[in-house]
Design brief:
Largest sheet: 7 strands, mixed
Structural class: alpha/beta
Helix content: 40-55%
Strand content: 5-15%
Order of helices and strands: HEHHHHEHEHEHEHEHEEHHHEHEEEH
Distance between the termini: 39 Å
Shape: globular
Strand order of the largest sheet: 2-8-7-6-5-3-4
Number of strands: 12
Low-confidence stretches: none
Length: 391
């Protein structure tokens, strides 16, 4: 297996920074970024051929590679810039009526909370952020707490497969199965999932799923996808109406026509997915990821001990992937983040989840135990020398 030092040389990250925030925006390996630049050069060498003549086939090839990786029909996915864009497609077209409810949790991503609040407010529907207790004690407890928010007004469920601020893997398969029994539309935010933990859309059976490729799949920024089950595809309009509507040359799929054909835009990032998958294969990424997960688990309780807190879930693969969130006590999360970066050159997020603050570290193949030791020592100094952290 490729070692961390060799892998680090494959990335464009500033070597002077201890980078423990892969979860936010990912990072692109050199071969994948080179592929991106090659696509952009091809675009500039003959824009008309790239966009108007060959673009559909370029996108098809990339969609086929992605679909094989996440196990779905290539015609059931379209590329979008990010999961928030994807979810705006869904929320905007979902025919909500006054009194309808969208059942979610209180652990969802803030941008998507805002998306659902916006469209629910317009239609006088309700976005229900059902509380999930922390620390999580079991999968069964999550299911019980989530479904306590269900009633006859619930129209759809919306849930993260991996949460953002709390970095928890939620039992989405079980939730989708239960939702099916209740006749509910299932909408899943999988922003952190592709390339992070296994994703099999045929097995998951979500009606709608969005995931980012520019995070753990390591493509350039602005590459994500929206999956919609065939029976629902024609219900969702594009955010931008363009050439795909009343197309002069319609394809076999209104879904693809509506969402792919948007005139002049650089979709080069979308075309790098095959190269990113190749990079994973060449570097035995399943083994790399397993080592990363082990490093996350091995250090979690150590950091909680330093912070005087407890893990927010059982320290197992069932709830944790390649990142974890440590409960901390700080009145200035933004200042703490800036202090860690400014004084120690450590990039690590300090997210909020309602009234609780966390420090969330991500581990990717280029990270070492030394990176986490640097973070640990920095936090120890901050506790003793500043008022940014208390224990």
């Amino acid at each position: 297996m490729t070692d961390a030092t060799t892998l680090k040389s494959q990335f464009l990250l500033d070597p002077s920074i201890t980078y423990l925030n892969f979860g936010s925006f990912g990072a692109c390996p050199r071969p994948v970024f080179k592929d991106y630049q090659d696509w952009q050069l091809l675009l500039e060498s003959e824009p008309c051929q790239y966009i108007a003549v060959n673009g559909v086939n370029y996108l098809k090839t990339s969609r086929q590679a992605l679909a094989s990786f996440i196990n779905c029909d290539a015609d059931d996915v379209v590329y979008v810039t990010n999961p928030t864009y994807a979810m705006n497609i869904i929320a905007k077209s979902l025919k909500l009526e006054e009194g309808d409810e969208i059942l979610a949790t209180n652990l969802e991503y803030g941008a998507l909370d805002r998306t659902w609040n916006y469209y629910c407010n317009k239609s006088k529907a309700r976005y229900v952020r059902q509380p999930i207790d922390l620390p999580v004690v079991s999968k069964e407890a999550i299911l019980e707490q989530f479904w306590a928010g269900y009633n006859s007004k619930t129209k759809a469920i919306f849930i993260s497969q991996i949460t953002s601020a709390t970095a928890l893997i939620l039992p989405v398969k079980e939730i989708c199965d239960m939702a099916k029994e209740r006749g509910l539309l299932t909408i899943v935010d999988g922003a952190h999932v592709p390339g992070h933990i296994p994703l099999d859309l045929s097995e998951l059976r979500a009606d709608i799923y969005t995931g980012a490729c520019h995070k753990w799949l390591m493509t350039p920024k602005g590459c994500s996808f929206l999956y919609v089950k065939k029976e629902f595809q024609n219900q969702f309009d594009p955010v931008i109406i363009s050439w795909g509507y009343e197309s002069a040359a319609p394809s076999h799929s209104q879904f693809l026509d509506y969402h792919q054909m948007q005139g002049t835009r650089d979709f080069s990032a979308f075309l790098t997915v095959p190269k990113a998958l190749q990079f994973r294969t060449e570097n035995h990424w399943d083994e790399v990821a397993a080592d990363c997960r082990e490093m996350v688990r091995a250090n979690y309780t150590r950091f909680c001990g330093l912070m005087g807190s407890e893990p927010i879930c059982p320290v197992t693969d069932e709830f944790l992937g390649q990142m974890c969130s440590i409960p901390i006590k700080t009145n200035s999360p933004e200042k703490l983040h800036d202090y860690l970066f400014g004084h120690y050159k450590i990039e690590v997020p300090v997210p909020r989840q309602e009234n609780q603050m966390f420090l969330r570290y991500s581990i990717q193949g280029f990270n070492t135990q030394g990176d986490l030791d640097r973070l640990y020592d920095a936090l120890k100094e901050i506790i003793s020398e500043t008022d940014l952290l208390t224990v």
